[in-house]
Design goal:
The protein has 141 residues and is α+β, with helices and mostly antiparallel strands. The protein has five helices and four strands.
Length: 141
C-alpha cells in the first residue's frame, strides 16, 4: 500500500513538473528614459540627450558659461569642466580652463554624452538619441 502511494506521488510530481518545464516565461520590463534630474527646471536635467553650443565672448570664463547653461541641473561643476575641455580642445590652450580662446564655439554636452565620455564610448557631438520604444520584451526560458 505504501508502495502505491509512493508511485502515485512520483507520477503526480512528474506530471506537474512536465507542465512547469514546458511553460515559457514572458517578462515585460518598463524602460524609463527619464533622468533622476528630470524634476529640475534646467533643460540639461529634463532631457538627458539635450546639448547646446556656445560662442565664447571676450572676458568670459568657463565657470560663467557653466553657471549660465547648467545652473539648477544638479551636475557637478568639476565634471562639467573636464567634459567641456575634453570635447572642445580647440577652444582651450593646453587644455587649461583658464585659457579659453574668444570667438570659438564650444559644445556643451548632454548628460548622456558626459556619461559616454566617462565610459570611453565614442559618439558624435551632434548625435541626439530618440528612444521610441518604452518596453523591453523578453521571451524564453
Amino acid at each position: 500500500m505504501l508502495k502505491n502511494y509512493f508511485f502515485l506521488f512520483l507520477f503526480l510530481k512528474a506530471f506537474i513538473a512536465n507542465n512547469y518545464l514546458s511553460a515559457e516565461p514572458f517578462v515585460v520590463l518598463q524602460y524609463n528614459n527619464a533622468s533622476e534630474f528630470s524634476d529640475r527646471s534646467n533643460e540639461f536635467a529634463q532631457d538627458p540627450d539635450y546639448f547646446n553650443k556656445h560662442r565664447i565672448l571676450p572676458g568670459e570664463s568657463l565657470n560663467l558659461i557653466i553657471e549660465k547653461y547648467y545652473d539648477g541641473s544638479g551636475l557637478n561643476t568639476s565634471f562639467l569642466q573636464l567634459a567641456i575641455v575634453s570635447l572642445n580642445k580647440h577652444a582651450f590652450r593646453n587644455k587649461n580652463i583658464n585659457y579659453m580662446i574668444a570667438d570659438k564655439t564650444i559644445h556643451l554636452p548632454s548628460i548622456n554624452q558626459i556619461s559616454k565620455l566617462m565610459k570611453g564610448i565614442d559618439f558624435e557631438l551632434d548625435e541626439q538619441l530618440n528612444y521610441k520604444q518604452n518596453n523591453i520584451y523578453y521571451f524564453g526560458g
